[in-house]
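Technical note accompanying the year-one report. For the benefit of new consortium partners, we illustrate the data format agreed upon in the data management plan: each record pairs a sequence with a structure-token string. No post-processing was applied to the example shown here.
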Amino acid sequence: MAITEAEARKVAHLARIAVDDAALPALAAELNGILHFMEQLNEVDVDGVEPMTGVERMRLKRREDVVTDGDMQDRILRNAPDAREGFFAVPKVVE
């Protein structure tokens, strides 16, 4: 499967990335390289391989699940660039 310049333009549009027309051939080539690498990964035989999170067998450390009230509002809000009335103050993001 090969990505055309038109498809690269569409991918850039969907990703909200501004790409000049002159850069579209390079973007299409990069996307084709990614797809080629994914095809190579699909050829790897993984039958009998257990899923793992790391190269060493290890159990996660466990701790007792204890419910607390936290009671650290003042310490947490001390890190905030802007805090008002006991809350984080953030700029409005809805237009």
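Partners are asked to follow this layout when depositing records. The beta strands are 83-84, 87-88.
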